[in-house]
Amino acid sequence: MFDLSLKRLFTIVLAALAFTVTGRAQAPVPDLPYKHDALKPGEVCLVSGKSLTQGDVVYLIRGRRVPLRREQVRYFIADSTRYLAQLQPQSALFHEAMAQRGTEAGGIDLGWFLFGMYVLVALFFGGLSGYAAVSKGLNPIPHFFIGLFFSAPGYLYVLTRPRAATAGEVPSGFVKVHTTHEPVPCGRCGYTNHPAAKLCSGCGAKLQPIVASEVEKAK
Fold it and tell me: pLDDT tens string for the chain (219 positions)?
């Protein structure tokens, strides 16, 4: 009877081992959005520390190999941050998080970045085109928009346009900027007067104007 009980116990143990091995081999692996890689000899599971066998998986996550036993994948998913931290120093994790970009990491999308660069370049060439138009005596507003929409080709077009006014001439639609001459001291009292003044403002002595006043030019 003792031998019968021992045989029964031995049979139960073998059945339990067979069930464990069979159950592990048939354990489904969750479908994760990571690439798979081939197993390498001597690799151990990141979660349990046990050696990998046929049927286990190795994921490629952020450029690193993550070996896992089939039954440990769900534990890795539940706390992936802690397990990934074991593969590199904390400072490297920080730099990696800072390096992530895109809408998921709170950064800027590539399309919006390129659009912003285009706007900056367009404004730059628009300003250059408007300035070049003013220097040629042309209306700056339409030429600003030429540079804004066509960037460098638009600016080159404005540069090749002929001048609308000769040097020293005020273009049509513009106002002449008044020039200021250096004051001239009085020969009697030393008081400084406008170079177009005929009398000294300090002592009333007569002065010889060296430039014509704006009033006389307007007559």
Answer: 445 465 666 566 555 555 454 444 455 666 677 888 888 888 899 898 888 888 888 988 877 889 988 888 888 888 888 888 887 654 444 444 444 444 444 456 788 888 999 999 999 999 999 999 888 888 889 999 999 999 899 999 999 998 875 555 555 555 555 666 788 899 889 899 888 888 998 898 988 888 877 666 665
Same domain, 138 and 201: no
Whole-angstrom distance, CA of residue 154 vs CA of residue 9: 92
Q: Is 13 among the domain residues?
A: no
Whether the pTM exceeds 0.70: the reply is no
Instruction: Give the pair of three-digit tokens for residue 99.
Output: 């390096």
Q: Give the list of residues 6+ apart from residue 30 with CB closer than 8 angstroms, or none.
A: 73, 74, 77
Range(s) of the domain holding residue 143:
110-160
